[in-house]
């Protein structure tokens, strides 16, 4: 089973306790890594690759989104791969950063009638797949990425977050 070195930074005190986030991230990202290694034949390095997770708020993610994507608004999750990868490419020692905004996750969870943890789990998987070169800009890419997300979430006992929707 592939291992990950997960580094967590909490920038907003309203997030759950660090130990709670660490346990959730280890379970979710561990399942995603295991799925990619097994089902997608994703080659993992012998040393555990590092992934950095930043748990922040809408104001901070809005600044990041504006600076890096020219979108002056908050978003739920942003991913910054350390190295460009194509799906099924071999990751390096650093996968990259995933940044999550608490208020947006909370609002979306309410709108989707899901628990905060369930929606956060989905966004962690989504952000993690971006670090491996998966994207959803084109319909074909979106279908492939959403199918992977759905299968990984099913392995965690969660339902299809895209049921009844067209690919993003």
Automatic annotation (TrEMBL):
The molecular function terms of the Gene Ontology recorded here are: metalloendopeptidase activity; RNA endonuclease activity; zinc ion binding
* InterPro entries found in the cross-reference section: MetalPrtase_cat_dom_sf_prd, YbeY, YbeY_CS
A GO CC term attached to the entry:
cytoplasm
Q: Which UniProt keywords apply?
A: Cytoplasm, Endonuclease, Hydrolase, Metal-binding, Nuclease, Ribosome biogenesis, rRNA processing, Zinc
What's its top-level EC category?
hydrolase
Among the Pfam families in the record, one is: YbeY
Q: Please classify the protein's predominant subcellular localization into one broad category.
A: cytoplasm
Q: State its Enzyme Commission number(s).
A: 3.1.-.-
Q: Which cofactor does it need?
A: Zn(2+)
Record's signal peptide: none
Give the co-factor note: Binds 1 zinc ion.
Gene3D superfamilies, sorted: Metalloproteases ('zincins'), catalytic domain
Please tell me where Zn(2+) binds in this chain.
126, 130, 136
| GO BP term (any one) | rRNA processing
The entry's localization annotation reads: Cytoplasm
Instruction: Report TM segments.
Output: none
The record's annotation in HAMAP family points to:
Endoribonucl_YbeY
NCBIfam families in the record: rRNA maturation RNase YbeY
Its biological purpose: Single strand-specific metallo-endoribonuclease involved in late-stage 70S ribosome quality control and in maturation of the 3' terminus of the 16S rRNA.
Please report which protein family the annotation says this sequence is part of. Belongs to the endoribonuclease YbeY family.
Q: What is this protein called?
A: Endoribonuclease YbeY
């Amino acid at each position: 089973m592939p291992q990950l070195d997960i580094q967590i930074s909490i920038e907003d005190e309203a997030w759950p306790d660090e130990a709670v986030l660490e346990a959730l991230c280890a379970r979710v990202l561990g399942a995603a890594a295991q799925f990619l290694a097994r089902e997608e034949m994703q080659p993992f390095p012998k040393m555990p690759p590092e992934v950095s997770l930043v748990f922040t708020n809408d104001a901070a993610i809005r600044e990041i989104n504006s600076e890096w994507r020219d979108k002056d608004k908050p978003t739920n999750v942003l991913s910054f791969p350390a190295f460009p990868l194509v799906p099924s490419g071999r990751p390096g020692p650093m996968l990259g950063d995933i940044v999550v905004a608490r208020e947006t996750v909370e609002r979306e969870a309410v709108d989707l009638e899901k628990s905060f943890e369930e929606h956060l789990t989905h966004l962690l998987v989504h952000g993690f797949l971006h670090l491996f070169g998966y994207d959803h800009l084109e319909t074909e890419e979106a279908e492939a990425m959403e199918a992977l997300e759905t299968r990984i979430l099913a392995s965690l006992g969660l339902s299809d977050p895209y049921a009844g929707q067209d690919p993003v």
